[in-house]
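Morning, I've got a small favour to ask if you have a moment. I owe you a coffee for this, so here goes:

…
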Amino acid sequence: MTAELVRGQNHPLSQSRLEIRVSAGTPMVAAATLGDEQGRIHGVEWVAHPGTPTLPGLEVSRQAAADHRLAVDLDAMPEAVHRISVLLALPIGVGGPTRFGAVPAPFVAVTGLDGTELVSYTVAGLDSESAVVALELYRRQDAWKVRAIGQGYAGGLADLFTDQGLAQAGQLAGGIHEAVAQGVARSVPAPPSRPDGDRSRQPAAPALGPDQSGPASAPNSVPQQPTSPYGTQSPAASGQPAPQSPYQGGSGAGDGAQQPAPTSGGGIDYSHPRRQTSAPPPPPPTAPPAEPGRPPQPVAGDATGWSMEERLYNQVWGMFEDLARTTAAYRSAVDFAESRMEKELDQVLSDPRSRIGGQGDAAREAAQARHTELVNQARAALDRDIAQLTAESEVVEPALPPAFARWDNPAWHAYRVPMEIPMAVRLGDLHLPESADLRIPMLIRLPLERGLWIDSGRAASLDGSFTDAHDLRRLAMDTAVAHAARLLAVYPAGEFTVHVIDPAGSGAQALAPLVQTGVLAGPPAAGAAAGVADVLARLTERVDLIQMALRGGAPDALPPGFDTSQQLLIVNDFPHGFDDRAVTQLRYLADEGPAVGVHLMMVADREDAAGYGPLLDPLWRALLRLTPVPDDHLADPWVGHAWTYVPPLVPPGSQVLQQVLTQVAAARAKHW
């Protein structure tokens, strides 16, 4: 997953052999310095520049160019090197621009040797500066990280080298500019302007082929929108104008996707990419005029889309991304403040003279004061953004249709069985520790592309409120019933069928709403032979029939009376009642079922299935893990935050579930 950094943010590096790629709109000089733990350069031999392009573990370009590749081997770095600073400077004396404010913002990316982009950073916000420290690779506890710096210097390379403690700063800077001026005739010109305005994501390595992890792309192709740890299908692949859900797909930080590219050479645009579109959707509602000095009032459905449902879906996507971005900026600012304070304190303690008298105490107090000021500034910006998102949430939440709404939303009181399948369904809420009161709806695109796993194996929630294993299993089954009821409610009559396997009958109480209203395809299957084996055999045969019809190019050649609705199988108390054959069939349904409309919902404790060994590991990975209690196990696709998932339980004492299922059952009876 690519991490798009903001100034001050850091990110761990998982590889030691790297390339640092620079893309700019004008020829510039790329260099790098090696520093000790305090970031100081010990001599000119610690600087890689066009005149001396190679150092141990480091190689830079030999001339000014609009695009650069710097090679870095972290394992080959001397032990005394703890920091590698990547420098960019505008050439002097060659008739080109002399300040970064007059050129497009440079784009810097750290990639693997195979071209996989690990980290990117757009060096925005510069004006009169002619040299800048773009990135810093630093060693922390035997591990390497990268930090976005963006520190510019109006005095150019001379001021930059002086700030890093180099005694021969002016002489070295003059030598670099002289070497560049001599080779300016050989410099690589700036690339021609592109219609899409995107110069930052052009692949420098061969495009991924069909046997690799992504689609092949042309040099000027439009970058893909990011898929989330919860989503898989892109709108381009599906032919739909709607963006990919930020929630559908994998369930951990290991899932990720390519980040959206900057669309200009200016500052980073943190707005959701699909809030601007070339399609001509109906005009969104008009926001009421804002009072002077106050931000505009939020309006439900202010995102683009062909319908109000699509606009609300896109708006929720935008809120999710906005909260992720602003929280990432806050955390990176706090990390930068702490790192800066540590550096200042290290400098104070390294000088024996500062340990005598009050000089050291004063320096420590000053460092702490600067740290507090930076943190307070970052928190103020975060609070401002959260307040704006909270106001938007308060407007959006009441306007959501039943498929997107919480169970306590008044929209359910006017519920009618829909005539069309909605874009998505809500499977809970997400929030971050910095904004615990701000909940973002977790919307999953329909039809489901992955099965669901309701984990009944956790011994406690985040607040430690659930410690009894029996209560947790009961709550897990209640959660599964709530999910199944919502899926039944958002599909048209006869378009969604639910089967249940409950070998020991332990879920009878939780399943009562589904059984009593008659919305199930049949009674919950109990017993290993008559229950588990029969249901799995029928659904496995269904998958085989549809696959054969599709592969044979005859999707209409299914048996007469074949039920073409989406199928959901709820499995309780797995692996109780499952033999080896049944386990194999279950894995088959999890892998092949979603593509042909057969979905799986497991209510299980993974530890209970430990006896099968690694055989079931692919099964768990194929399912989207949800929990019956709040748990921080989901990650976003942009910065990898651990989001707290809150399940969508029905309010205590509410009859909304019974009322909705009764209407679904009545509509199904008329349909059949």
